[in-house]
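User: Hi! I'm a student and our assignment asks us to look at how structure tokens line up with a sequence. Could you show me two examples?

Assistant: Happy to help. In each example below, the sequence comes first and the structure tokens follow. Example one:
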Amino acid sequence: MMNNTLKKQYKFSSGTRITGKWHKQHYTIVKELGYGANGIVYLAQTGADYVALKMSDSSMSVTSEVNVLKAFAKVQGAPLGPSLLDVDDWEVTGKNIPFYVMEYIQGPDLLTFVQSKGFSWTGVLIIQLLNDLDRIHKEGWVFGDLKPENLIVTGPPYKLRCIDVGGTTMQGRAIKEFTEFFDRGYWLGHSRKAEPSYDLFSTAMILINLSYPKRFNKSGSGGKEQLKTAVLAKPELKKFREPIMNAIDGKFTTALEMRQSMLDTLSVKTASGQSKAAPQSQRKPAATTRQQLNRKKNGGGFLETVLIVLIVTLLYVLYIYGELL
């Protein structure tokens, strides 16, 4: 995380006006959105629009993250990260502060969304995440600092968007930024090499985190067995056990493999649910039974009407016959 001294230097109050040195764009700080190892992010206003503005003490960090956003913008399909809007410097109190401005993506983070809407949303959102990770990986990047706080759910229709690309690293290099609970190195002692399996391990940890919102620390023995025990202890994770375990074991080489495993487990669950319901489905549904009863009632009413008509006609004939006699 960003050290406290550095954070204090970049602590600006609401209403602070920022003017770009080169592009002369004006931004007014509204509030702090968050901070990490490479800088601090503010919600800011420019004209009638809200934007996310990130400033850092390192121009290299800003350049690196700007390059990631530009790379994400070239990926075909739905946007993965926020759109890049501006890159500039701000001269204040005798120093130059590099910053960049990006689209402000509104919505709850993934954990907050699942807690609000229900755990049943987990499968569809993680499958969507894996599809997005596959597109990132094919462009030669690894997200790195993958966690619910960096995943915003927009909509409806609900869509995951990745924010805070500070940990995004080119494949083959060392992960630049990570959070311990989602870090393969912390749990397994493996390398922090930027490769797809690193993100897939983090995805498995996200699934665990959605079931353990308060998270937990590595115990003395720790490692793989502690994680597997935690998965087995939660009934809601039962349907995701296979993809979680395989991701922890490093058996997936691509995000699409884990995505397919998720789809398979969900389809098996659905098929299982349908087979259990089959005996009831063999019975006549209530609606069908009511329709049949209505038809019987209607048929009975018709016969009663015909019978009454016949009786009245017979009585009328007998009356006429009696008059003639």
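Example two works the same way, sequence first and then tokens:
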Amino acid sequence: MTPERRERLLSVLNKRQAGLTVVLENVQDPHNISAVMRTCDAVGIQEIYVLNNKIPRHKKWGAKSSSSAAKWLTIHQFSEVDECITALRQKYDKIFTTHLAADSVGLYDIDFTGSVALVFGNEHGGVSEEIRAQADGNFIIPQVGIIQSLNISVACAVSIYEALRQRTLAGHYNQKNLPDEQFNSLLNQWGFIGEEEQEF
């Protein structure tokens, strides 16, 4: 590994956020998943959770232009809701789902400076009732148009960029956020990704 490449990898790892993640529940279109992965990488999310308990497990992550992001992320796949929720509770203090309900809060009212997992649901049915029952609350993205929904990858991007904004103001990107063991393991793992596959 060249010194320049090592410096670049260290720069990216120093901005990875341990207290922020995205959960995709039964998202069908692999292109949507790929787009979410690319945005997660862009804002410094390292770990994402993919729950497929009503659709087949994904074997690949969509178009080549987006799927390259998967190499740089830690992807946890689950086929059981309880197993996924248990894993989330071990690492994150709050779980919020995208769902329009009487008690839903606005995206901008969520405190993203803490430890937060955001759940995005199936393109047609949204987040399941089973997940919502175990979450800490629901949130909505403010919209003033006629069509009151966004594509899942767009909804995710809007949401986690608000998280980036808040966490930037709080100084979370100015210091190493990942635990030492995970940081060093990723640095070693990324070092073996071929030069020809690099996105930088």
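Here is something you could point out in your write-up. The longest strand covers residues 20-25.
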